[in-house]
Specification:
By secondary structure, the protein is mainly beta. Helix content is about 5%, strand content about 50%.
Length: about 350
C-alpha cells in the first residue's frame, strides 16, 4: 500500500509541478560539454562520451542517456562538438530528446592562463503521454487506489508534443592549478509545452539554467608512457534552474589505471545524497560507475538511490595524438574532465 501511494504521489508531482528541469549527471566531469559548451575540445584531440543514469530504479522514476563527441583544431584554436540526450521521466510520462552542436574558441594568456568561450545551438522535443497520467478525480478517496483511469474532468490538450530551438553559452578560465567556469543554458527559453494543470496551460519556456564550476588540481606523481599522471582534484559544481538548485562538493582522485571520488550533494533546501564513484582507465578507454546514496528523508522510499555509468574514448591517449595532446594538456588543470 505504501508503495502504491508513493507511486501515485510521484505521478501527481509530475502532473502538477512539471517545469522542465535539466538532468544533471553525478559524474558531471565525464561529459563536461553537456554542462558547459566552453569545454568543447578541451582534450586537444577527438573524444567520445557515453553516459546513462537510472534514478530510483524500483520506481522506474528517471532514465537519462547521453552521447557526445568533440574535438579540437589547433590551427583555428577552436573546438567543435555534438551531443544527443534522451530523458525519460516516470515510465514515459514525460520524454525529452535533444540534439545540440557546440563550438568553442581558446585564448592563451600570460602565466599559463587560458580562457575558452563556448556556444551551443540545437533543438529539443518534449512529449507528454497523457494516457499514463493519474489525476485526483481518478483516485478513490477511501482506498487510495485508481478507481477509473478512463475518466477525468481534466481536458486532454490539443497537442502533447512540443519542439523548441535552444541556445546556450559558456566561459571557462584555467591555469595549471585552478579552473573556473560559468554557463547559461536555454538563454532563449524555448517553448517546451509544459503542462501545468492550472489556468495557464503552458509555461514561459524552458527555465534558464545557470551552472558554475570551480576546482583545482594537485599532482603527486608524474606519469610515463605506460601510466597516466596521478592527481587529486577538489571541485565544486553549483546549478540553479527555476526553483531548483544544487551544490555538489567533493574530490576526484586518479592514480595509474584506477580513479575514484566522493561528493556530497545539497539540494538548495536540504541534504540530498552522497555520491561514490570508482573507475578504471587504460589507453583510450575509460569506465566509471557511481552510486548516489540518498541521505534525505526520501532515503526510506527512494528505491535504490541512483546508478550511473560513464564510458569515454579519449584519443589524446592514442599514439597518433598523444605527443601533441600532451603538450596541449600540460598548460591547465583540466585532467579531471579528460
Amino acid at each position: 500500500m505504501i508503495r502504491t501511494i508513493l507511486s501515485v504521489v510521484f505521478i501527481l508531482c509530475i502532473c502538477s509541478f512539471a517545469k522542465a528541469q535539466d538532468p544533471v549527471f553525478s559524474q558531471f566531469y565525464a561529459s563536461p560539454t553537456l554542462l558547459n559548451p566552453a569545454f568543447t575540445g578541451s582534450v586537444g584531440a577527438p573524444r567520445i562520451n557515453l553516459q546513462s543514469r537510472f534514478q530510483w530504479p524500483s520506481f522506474d522514476a528517471y532514465k537519462t542517456y547521453a552521447a557526445s563527441f568533440d574535438t579540437y583544431f589547433r590551427e583555428a584554436k577552436s573546438g567543435l562538438g555534438l551531443y544527443v540526450m534522451s530523458d525519460i521521466q516516470g515510465e514515459g510520462f514525460i520524454s525529452t530528446s535533444e540534439i545540440k552542436g557546440m563550438y568553442s574558441y581558446q585564448l592563451n594568456m600570460r602565466n599559463n592562463w587560458s580562457v575558452r568561450f563556448g556556444t551551443e545551438v540545437g533543438f529539443g522535443q518534449k512529449f507528454y503521454d497523457w494516457d499514463k497520467y493519474v489525476f485526483l478525480d481518478q483516485i478513490d478517496p477511501i482506498t487510495g487506489s485508481v478507481a477509473d483511469q478512463s475518466f477525468s474532468e481534466e481536458q486532454r490538450p490539443e497537442s502533447l508534443q512540443a519542439n523548441y530551438f535552444d541556445i546556450s553559452s559558456g566561459i571557462l578560465f584555467a591555469s595549471k592549478t585552478v579552473y573556473a567556469g560559468l554557463s547559461l543554458r536555454h538563454m532563449n527559453r524555448g517553448n517546451d509545452g509544459v503542462i501545468l494543470l492550472n489556468e495557464n496551460r503552458l509555461s514561459n519556456g524552458v527555465p534558464l539554467m545557470v551552472s558554475a564550476q570551480f576546482g583545482t588540481q594537485i599532482n603527486f606523481n608524474k606519469g610515463n608512457k605506460r601510466k597516466s599522471d596521478s592527481f587529486i582534484s577538489p571541485n565544486v559544481l553549483i546549478v540553479k534552474q527555476g526553483d531548483f538548485g544544487q551544490v555538489n562538493a567533493g574530490a576526484y582522485i586518479s592514480s595509474s589505471f584506477v580513479f575514484g571520488g566522493v561528493w556530497y550533494r545539497y539540494s538548495w533546501t536540504n541534504a540530498d545524497a552522497a555520491v561514490f564513484m570508482l573507475g578504471v582507465q587504460s589507453g583510450v578507454f575509460k569506465l566509471g560507475y557511481s552510486y548516489d546514496y540518498t541521505v534525505s528523508a526520501l532515503q526510506a522510499y527512494s528505491g535504490g538511490g541512483a546508478h550511473e555509468i560513464a564510458v569515454s574514448f579519449r584519443f589524446d591517449q592514442s599514439e597518433y595524438f598523444k605527443n601533441k595532446a600532451k603538450k596541449y594538456n600540460s598548460i591547465d588543470c583540466l585532467q579531471l574532465f579528460r
